[in-house]
Amino acid sequence: MKKIIILAAAISGIAVFAQEKKSDTVKANAIEGITLTKQVFKKQSDRFVYDVAASPVAKGNTTFDLLKQTPLLSSTDDKTLKIAGKNNALIYINGRKTNMDAESLVQLLKSTPAENIQKIEVITVPGSEYQVESSDGIINIVMKKKMSDGLNGNMRMSNMQNKYNGSSASLSLNYRKDKLGISGNIFAGENIQAQSYVLRNGTNLISNESVGDINDPNKNLGGYLNFDYQLTDNSNLALTWNSWYNKSNDSTVDLLNTLRNYNTDGSLKSTEQNKSQNREDAHYYNNSLNLNYELKTDSLGSKLNVNAAYLNYRRFQFSDNRTLVSVVPGTFTDFSLLRQQITQDIPQVINNFSGTVDYIQKFKNDFTVSLGGNFNKTKTDNDTKNYSYSYNGSGVLIATKPDFNHFIYDESIYGVYLTLEKKFSDQLSGKVGARYEITKSLGTSDNPQNTVAQYQEIERNYNNLLPYLSFNYSINDKNNISYAFSSRMRRPSFWELNPVKNILTQDNYTQNNPFVKSSSTYNQELTYMLKSSYFLILNHSYFKDIITQVPLQREIIRDGVAYRQLAYIRTNFGDKQEMSAMLGMQKTFFKQYLTTNFNIGVQHNINNGTLNTDPTTGQVFDTYINKTKSTSMVIQTNNTIRLDKKKTWFLGVNYFYVDKQQIELGMLKNLMSLDLSIKKNWNDWTFSLNVTDVLKTNIVEIEDYQSSGNYNYVKNDQFRRGMTFSMVYNFGNQKVKKVRDIEGASDAIKSRTR
């Protein structure tokens, strides 16, 4: 059901100052806990640093909740973290990416209390040494240096009530004995992800409307296990296994479709109704192994880091989509007649072998050289089988059409980088670097129904030089200014390349595209900070060959009646510019009884895209044009209020507002959300109650009018308003820390699975 939802592109367009997703993922590993007293927010070199070493705000909190309180960070769906103005946020631990898939990471962040975090670093424009895509930013969590032998852990239980009830539980353990460190986590949970849709499209003469609900039950089981052994005083060897399983059976889409025809004077000519019922069973497995070796080469911090990894991803999906017509007009029962039935068997298997080598050489004169390389070899196997059944007016089967496509995609990526960093004085520092990447890919399609030669083999080979530059200047103790430039690319996710058509209604579907090519992004950012509390960020991003979904319409004739077909085509769609200015503040008031983060900003979007043909099938649609400019305002504030002197009761009040703005699918209407929370710390227990979207205003609405007369409207309610109650119990020696945290070689590939 997840790939039927057309809002993936819409939500990814809400990249304004820390809003919603796309994407494809966030990444992190196990994190222990937190205790804070003093909060300092400052700019250092290429990053913002939030010192949380001693404030009571985060005592007993989850790592995810703490990150939401960090300046420049937020979450609008309580599932993904965003950096202001960024499409995605990658989470690092002590400067290293982790080897976990996105879903298990989110659950891990929510299930792990924090007690050992020293500071949180927000890198809005990552350097060449970081293997990131597009305009992604990085959240680096720096742990405290406490170490002792022993065992500690925590148990967490939570219950969530939105439209449906969901529950989860987790157990995390961390053991240290001499040179051996073992850490692990197991998580289990179930929920029903509910959504409601209103979809309208057409012209002034023909109108299609689909209204209904989507219910997607999910059962999850996952975790990780890490063994880390200190070979010598300067070297370590580690093996990490991550696993995640998701089962989603009996997902349902029920939509009532209404076709209206109008006369030229605007009066209603005729009305026709049918019902779409989609039932889907899906499950996937995500397993990975990572072997890491680290060697410290001197006392200044120089080191060699080597990783080898294997990733196996397997997803199996079967869906049955039926279009029903009623015997009695307007009434749908079990005796309604079938008009069309489409069954789809859509398996996907991904295997990846990856390796990375990184070397950092530090010199005594505050000069650092970083160089390294990476290799990724990925094969995806997609063996899709579709059957279409057509029925006559009496509900009798009259035709069966098979549609098979075995699509195999092979990709190899080679990358090298070099970064030079120099601190010239206590006031001035700079960093320059470049990453060179070679991508070779080949897609082959064994499709008996398609004889178009170019469709049988799709080859993509390209080289990219990605430069980076930044400097930081401290004018004095109170004023700091910095600038950064970065060039990045975004490769399509593997599911986007699989040429599958997902049916939503008889005349509404999404189409993936094996011809999608990588897009390029160029980012510039200028930052001014005053007194480590107030900041101004000016940002400009240029996106070339954006990868997105484009809504294409055309008129089709079926049984002598004109219909409007709406297809959401996954493709490259022109260019886009985003310019933003944001003012922010991070301060504590009233002897730390109030901690507040406040941001207000404006963003200007310039879209430039045109499309009228499905690149996969060659079908021609009405031309869709998006050359619209828009300016929108954003307000965001996170507030934590301490309610007692003993620092055991805390009240949270968070709010965001996003003005309407133009995205790829049309004009996105304004969004806002008010979230409240109450927390009680009692010995080793923490009890929390969170209420999200209190005013029920976090509902997506997109509207688009073309000069041709075509219009398209989407309203999507994901039932953000809800309540979550959780209990956390910490036990054992709380000073135990893992030997170290390890970056996985296949991290960059994991983000492109789903």
Overall description:
This protein is mainly beta and 754 residues long. It has a single domain, classed as TonB-dependent receptor, beta-barrel domain (Maltoporin, Chain A, Beta Barrel). Helices cover 5% and strands 65% of the residues. It contains six helices and 40 strands. The protein has a 28-stranded antiparallel sheet that branches. Strands 1-2-7-8-5-6 form a six-stranded mixed sheet, with no helix packed on it. A four-stranded mixed sheet has the order 23-24-28-27. The longest helix has 10 residues. The two termini are 13 Å apart. The N terminus is likely disordered. This is TonB-dependent receptor. One of its GO terms (cellular component) is cell outer membrane. It is found in: Cell outer membrane. Keywords: Cell outer membrane, Membrane, Receptor, Signal. InterPro entries: Beta-barrel_TonB_sf, OMP_b-brl_3.
Short précis:
Keywords: Cell outer membrane, Membrane, Receptor, Signal. The chain contains six helices and 40 strands.
Structure characteristics:
754 residues, mainly beta, 28-stranded antiparallel beta sheet, 40 strands, globular, cell outer membrane, OMP_b-brl_3, signal, receptor
